[in-house]
Write a structure and sequence with these properties.
Chains A, B: GO terms for molecular function: DNA binding. Chains A, B: This is HxlR family transcriptional regulator. Chains A, B: It comes from Cellulophaga baltica 18. Two copies of one chain form a homodimer. Chain A is α+β, with helices and mostly antiparallel strands. The first copy, chain A, has one domain (5-99): Orthogonal Bundle (Arc Repressor Mutant, subunit A), CATH 1.10.10. Helix content of chain A is 53%, strand content 14%. Chain A is built from six helices and three strands. In chain A, strand 2 and strand 3 (73-78) form a beta hairpin. The termini of chain A are far apart. Chain B binds a DNA duplex through helix 3 and helix 4.
Chain lengths: 103, 103
DNA sequence: TAACTAAGCAACTTTTAGGTAAGTTATTGT
DNA sequence: ACAATAACTTACCTAAAAGTTGCTTAGTTA
């Protein structure tokens, strides 16, 4: 009962996982090839990376472009919807930076 | 390996759960008695509410004041550190509001 | 004296998130 | 012929998050 009763909850359901914000954050600088993006997220397993980008794509936050070459080449990029999270992602990052100082 | 390799990750470790942002959000308006606060978070179980406020208190984001009366009375409020999340919490809420429109 | 109250603890179960290891694909370089 | 490559997928497993139920406390009111 009562899922998404408030917008904040809705937002968290979209990006509130361990890896999603980090993946989105690293795409702020521009499109990335799959393997390169994954290496920017240290500690993520192959499975979780795939699962994370699948869901982000399904929710329209990132796009996925496949180049029909061998070996495969896939690029991910933020959609307009994904880019609209830029300020929030940077705020979260900035807040962490500031907060650490105060410990 | 590699926990908290970036500030965003650090932030998510502090507030990146299903309930924490919502509880913090509802405290933006001021201190609340435990039961009242809990009712503002529909769907949360008693256990998760207690666990959530315990962790937020442990991390210094909220304070807990106990009044030695019967039946018990407990009030929660944001600390300065918790208040510093105000802009982010409102941004997340606002983003959800805007994003829903576009669906 | 028994019910009621607000807060929250404890034991237990279920659900979800996340990790590991192996296999698949089609071409290119050796 | 065969290893190497990038980007997966699948099956299986563990760990963490969340839910459920029942209990405790001690004064107040019926």
């Amino acid at each position: 009962m009562n899922a998404n009763y408030c917008p904040l909850d809705y937002t968290m359901n979209l990006i509130g996982t361990k890896w999603k914000p980090i993946v989105l954050f690293h795409l702020l600088e521009g499109a990335e090839r799959s393997g390169v993006l994954q290496k920017k997220v240290p500690g993520i397993s192959n499975k979780m990376f795939t699962q994370t980008v699948r869901e982000l794509e399904r929710d329209g936050l990132i796009s996925r472009e496949i180049y029909p070459v061998v070996p495969p080449k896939v690029e991910y990029a933020l959609t307009a919807r994904g880019k609209s999270l830029e300020a929030i992602l940077k705020s979260l990052d900035q807040w962490g930076l500031e907060d650490k100082k105060g410990i």
